[in-house]
Every structure is written in C-alpha cells, then in structure tokens.
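B., you asked whether I could sanity-check this one before it goes into the benchmark set. Here's the sequence:
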Amino acid sequence: MCTYREAEEYILNIPRFAGKHTLEDTGKLLRRVTGGCVKSRIIHVAGTNGKGSVCAYLQSLLREAGFSVGLFISPHLKTMRERIRIEGEMLTEEAFTEAFSAVRALTEEEEHPSFFEFLFLMAMYCFQKAEPDYLILETGLGGRLDATNAVEKKEMAVITHMGLDHTEYLGDTLEKITAEKAGIFQEGARAVWFQTDDTVGEVLAKTAAKLQIPSYPVSKKDYTFLKIHHKGIDFSYRSLYYDSVRLYLRTIAAYQMENAALALRALEVLLGKEIMTPRVMRAGLEKAFWEGRMEEVLPDVYVDGAHNEDGIRAFLETVKEDGCAGSRYLFFGAVRDKRWEAMTERIAKSGLFTKIFPVQMKNARALSLESLQEMIEKYTGRRDGGYASAREALEAIGALKGERDRVYITGSLYLVGEIKELL
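And here's what the prediction gave me:
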C-alpha cells in the first residue's frame, strides 16, 4: 500500500490524465465501489452559497438526534482528508490511503475518474464500510451532472441560496443556474430550498411538481434576528411544529441564520416533531461549527470564504453590523475564474474598510497582486499596499491592528486555507 503523501500527490495530478465522464459512467464506477447497494439514507445538498454550512448543521443536528452520519464536502482548506468525515471526524491518513488504494484498483480498467469523482468514490467506499444511518453529500459544481448525483436513491434534496457563479458551465442567468441545481431533485425524495427570489422559487417549484414530490421553501420570514452576544447570534426560528423556537449560533455571521433555518426545516420534514424537538434543535446548532466561515482565528481577526459575488454580499451584511468601534482592515485574495471585478467593486464601494490589502495566493488560478491593486484603486482612488504571500499578510496584522480594530480575511477559500495552515 502507498503512503498518504503518495496518495495525495497522485490525486492532485489526476487532472492531467482524467477522461471526460457522463453521469452514467460515474454511476457504473459507483456501483463497482459500493456493490450496487447503499444502505445509508442520503441527503443531497446543492446551491451557490451556504452548502458547506448547511451540511455542517445537518450533520450536527442528526448526530444530536441520535443518528450516525457520513459527510462528503468540498473544497478542503488544509488537507484532502477534510472532505470525507464519519461521525464528525475527518479520515485518518491510514483510512484515506486504504480508500485510495481500493478505488484505484476498482477503476484501473476504466476511463480514469476525474479529481472530484475519485474523491467521491473514495468517500462512498468509506461510507459503505461504516454504514452510517445518514449520508450528507455536497455537490461540487452544479447539480444535474455532478458526480454526486449518480447515487440511485435519496431521501431528500436541499437547495441553498442561489447566485451567479460558474456561469461558463451552468448558464448565464439565475434561472438557468437554478435549473441545473434542481437536477438533484429525484422522484420519491422530498425537496427543501431557500427562496432566494421569485424566479428561483418558480423554477424549483415547477421541477418538484413535475417529479410529483413534496417541496418546502424556506425564506427570511422563517427566522428573526434577536441579538448578538458572546460572539454568537440569538435568533428565533418559525418551526413547522412548535411555532417560534429561540436558538443560538456560535458565529457572528448573519447569513448563517438562513443556513441553519434551511437545515432545521429539512430535518423537521424528514424526521418529524417527535425527533426534531426544540432540545435537539438548540443543542444541535450550538455544537455545530464550520471552519473558514466568519471564523475567529485570532482575537478580532476573522476569516470568511466569501469566494463569489453573492458570498461577498452576505459577508458585507455581517461586517456592517459587527459593532466595531475602531478601524476595519480587509485582506483580500481572488481567483481569475470568479467574477472578481464585481466582488472587488462591492467591497470597495461598501465604505466599510479603512484599508484594503490584496494578497497574492500560491494557487495557480490566483489573480496577480497588480490586478487586484488596480481594481481596488479604480473604486477607492487609492492604493493601500499589498502582500506577496499569506505569510507576509499574517505577519503584518500584528503590527497593523489596534486594540479596538477588526481584521477580515476573505475573497477565496484558498486564501483562508493558506492562513489557517500558517496558524
């Protein structure tokens, strides 16, 4: 058997030799890995923003309700092992290497799986061995043609907040993108979604009606912000069964109320009021944690993986209400294949930051420091400087930040990952 480092290196190099698969091809490989029988009940999650957070809340709530849970998510921040979790714990290096060797052996006679397919097949191999009660699968990109959509039977499909992202693959309008995400809906599986706007709601409702499945929209009417205290949020949730339930989230991110409400509604629909009691709701949400989403990594230093325009919108809404009594400083990195100009414009025009510092990331897709500086200058009329690496940016924070100041690091999950790895 190979070492963990060898397995990781092999997977990182997969894009060089992977073939192009149809969903039917992926399904064939999946049946080979699982033996054609997946006993765990599957919850499938798609959307533009909030997928990882919704998955984290679903995982925590299910475990609080007494169920065992397997979780497959992407991307990772520091190690590939984060993508596959059983009972809240990411894979050990030994388990990762075992799954890698098994999937490689089972697929060596086929057209080679893609990077994402390979990791998904590894996850399903691990879940097949552990047989948790529930599997939570997060799509990688889109929905209809995503590798995770090769599973044959689901209990529920969940669609999070929708926005314009990956337009080169999914379509150039919100309606087209939503239709692709709605491709995870399946006959016999109930559907829950966040009502981003009327267009999104109409596409999702029509898709559910066509499949003759029950559907449950969630909107801002289903939760109410109460207050921020102890670096967390008190809010009330309009339950299907218990009227209004007061709850607490361990985050200052206002957008997490939306994600928590979506997870709560999904499990109320799936499990019923006898299991999804207010006690389970409170304890499940309080114990939930998701790295890299408005996470305080040092005193008053927050990282947030707002990696697209809609994510920046949600990020800025939280920053606006943070109660900062001093200056706010932003460290920002982005990749070329996102709508980075629109993201930068939103940030610059918000007027929320005393200084904005672009950061050069190590990733091959990263925008150059000069490109980001030019765009920030275009909308602010100034250049505040910049940093050639995440390490330089992190070193600068200590000298820059005063006692009442607050620092945010955002724009790309790659930048968040680099910062967290350094810490």
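One thing to flag: The chain has two domains: 4-287, 295-422. Otherwise nothing jumped out at me.
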